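Please, structure for the following, as C-alpha coordinates.
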Amino acid sequence: MRTVDRPLSPHLQIFRPWITMMMSIAHRITGGALYFGTALLAWWLLAAAVSDRAYDAAQWFFSSWLGLLILFGYTWAEIHHALGGIRHLVWDTGHGMDRSSASKMAWLTLITSISLTVIIWAAILVLRG
Protein backbone atom coordinates (compact mmCIF):
# COMPACT_ATOMS: atom_id res chain seq x y z
CA MET A 1 0.00 0.00 0.00
CA ARG A 2 1.23 3.39 -0.93
CA THR A 3 0.47 6.35 1.33
CA VAL A 4 -1.39 9.20 -0.28
CA ASP A 5 -0.59 12.79 0.67
CA ARG A 6 -3.91 14.29 1.60
CA PRO A 7 -4.67 17.50 3.42
CA LEU A 8 -5.19 17.06 7.12
CA SER A 9 -8.39 18.09 8.82
CA PRO A 10 -8.39 21.78 9.74
CA HIS A 11 -7.02 22.31 13.21
CA LEU A 12 -5.89 25.15 15.46
CA GLN A 13 -2.66 25.58 13.46
CA ILE A 14 -4.72 26.45 10.38
CA PHE A 15 -7.56 28.52 11.81
CA ARG A 16 -7.06 32.09 12.94
CA PRO A 17 -8.36 32.20 16.52
CA TRP A 18 -11.66 34.06 16.68
CA ILE A 19 -13.03 35.45 19.90
CA THR A 20 -16.05 33.14 19.71
CA MET A 21 -13.78 30.12 19.31
CA MET A 22 -11.61 31.19 22.24
CA MET A 23 -14.65 31.81 24.45
CA SER A 24 -16.00 28.38 23.55
CA ILE A 25 -12.71 26.84 24.67
CA ALA A 26 -12.71 29.00 27.82
CA HIS A 27 -16.29 27.90 28.58
CA ARG A 28 -15.22 24.26 28.51
CA ILE A 29 -12.11 24.93 30.62
CA THR A 30 -14.06 26.91 33.22
CA GLY A 31 -16.60 24.08 33.40
CA GLY A 32 -13.79 21.70 34.30
CA ALA A 33 -12.29 24.18 36.76
CA LEU A 34 -15.64 24.51 38.51
CA TYR A 35 -15.59 20.77 39.19
CA PHE A 36 -12.34 21.08 41.13
CA GLY A 37 -13.38 24.34 42.79
CA THR A 38 -16.57 22.72 44.01
CA ALA A 39 -14.51 19.87 45.47
CA LEU A 40 -12.52 22.48 47.42
CA LEU A 41 -15.77 24.05 48.60
CA ALA A 42 -16.94 20.63 49.78
CA TRP A 43 -13.63 20.15 51.61
CA TRP A 44 -14.12 23.48 53.41
CA LEU A 45 -17.70 22.59 54.40
CA LEU A 46 -16.71 19.13 55.60
CA ALA A 47 -13.82 20.59 57.57
CA ALA A 48 -16.26 22.97 59.27
CA ALA A 49 -18.51 20.05 60.16
CA VAL A 50 -15.75 17.72 61.40
CA SER A 51 -13.71 19.69 63.92
CA ASP A 52 -12.14 23.01 64.80
CA ARG A 53 -8.73 21.63 63.86
CA ALA A 54 -9.87 20.55 60.38
CA TYR A 55 -11.59 23.89 59.84
CA ASP A 56 -8.46 25.78 60.93
CA ALA A 57 -6.39 23.78 58.43
CA ALA A 58 -8.83 24.60 55.61
CA GLN A 59 -8.93 28.25 56.63
CA TRP A 60 -5.13 28.35 56.71
CA PHE A 61 -4.99 27.01 53.15
CA PHE A 62 -7.63 29.36 51.78
CA SER A 63 -5.98 32.32 53.53
CA SER A 64 -2.58 31.58 51.98
CA TRP A 65 -1.51 33.31 48.78
CA LEU A 66 -2.07 30.08 46.84
CA GLY A 67 -5.52 29.60 48.34
CA LEU A 68 -6.50 33.18 47.57
CA LEU A 69 -5.23 32.79 44.00
CA ILE A 70 -7.30 29.62 43.59
CA LEU A 71 -10.36 31.36 45.04
CA PHE A 72 -9.83 34.33 42.70
CA GLY A 73 -9.64 31.95 39.73
CA TYR A 74 -12.68 30.04 40.96
CA THR A 75 -14.63 33.30 41.21
CA TRP A 76 -13.70 34.24 37.65
CA ALA A 77 -14.48 30.74 36.36
CA GLU A 78 -17.89 30.79 38.05
CA ILE A 79 -18.83 34.18 36.63
CA HIS A 80 -17.39 33.50 33.18
CA HIS A 81 -19.11 30.13 32.91
CA ALA A 82 -22.44 31.60 34.02
CA LEU A 83 -22.20 34.45 31.51
CA GLY A 84 -21.21 31.99 28.80
CA GLY A 85 -24.28 29.95 29.66
CA ILE A 86 -26.47 33.04 29.35
CA ARG A 87 -24.86 33.75 25.97
CA HIS A 88 -25.78 30.23 24.85
CA LEU A 89 -29.34 30.70 26.12
CA VAL A 90 -29.63 33.84 23.99
CA TRP A 91 -28.39 31.86 21.00
CA ASP A 92 -30.99 29.17 21.76
CA THR A 93 -33.68 31.77 21.14
CA GLY A 94 -32.21 32.40 17.69
CA HIS A 95 -30.83 35.84 18.52
CA GLY A 96 -27.25 37.01 18.11
CA MET A 97 -26.27 34.29 15.67
CA ASP A 98 -24.65 36.55 13.07
CA ARG A 99 -20.87 36.90 13.22
CA SER A 100 -20.86 40.50 14.44
CA SER A 101 -23.34 39.92 17.26
CA ALA A 102 -21.66 36.68 18.33
CA SER A 103 -18.29 38.43 18.53
CA LYS A 104 -19.72 41.34 20.51
CA MET A 105 -21.40 38.97 22.95
CA ALA A 106 -18.16 37.00 23.36
CA TRP A 107 -16.18 40.17 24.13
CA LEU A 108 -18.92 41.30 26.50
CA THR A 109 -18.74 37.94 28.31
CA LEU A 110 -14.97 38.23 28.73
CA ILE A 111 -14.90 41.89 29.78
CA THR A 112 -17.86 41.52 32.15
CA SER A 113 -16.50 38.40 33.82
CA ILE A 114 -13.12 40.02 34.46
CA SER A 115 -14.72 43.26 35.66
CA LEU A 116 -17.14 41.54 38.04
CA THR A 117 -14.37 39.36 39.45
CA VAL A 118 -12.18 42.38 40.16
CA ILE A 119 -15.11 44.30 41.70
CA ILE A 120 -16.08 41.36 43.94
CA TRP A 121 -12.50 40.83 45.12
CA ALA A 122 -11.94 44.55 45.68
CA ALA A 123 -15.05 44.57 47.87
CA ILE A 124 -13.81 41.49 49.75
CA LEU A 125 -10.41 43.07 50.39
CA VAL A 126 -11.98 46.34 51.53
CA LEU A 127 -14.37 44.56 53.90
CA ARG A 128 -11.58 42.38 55.31
CA GLY A 129 -9.57 45.46 56.14
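The chain has four helices and no strands. Residues 19-50 form the longest helix (32 residues).
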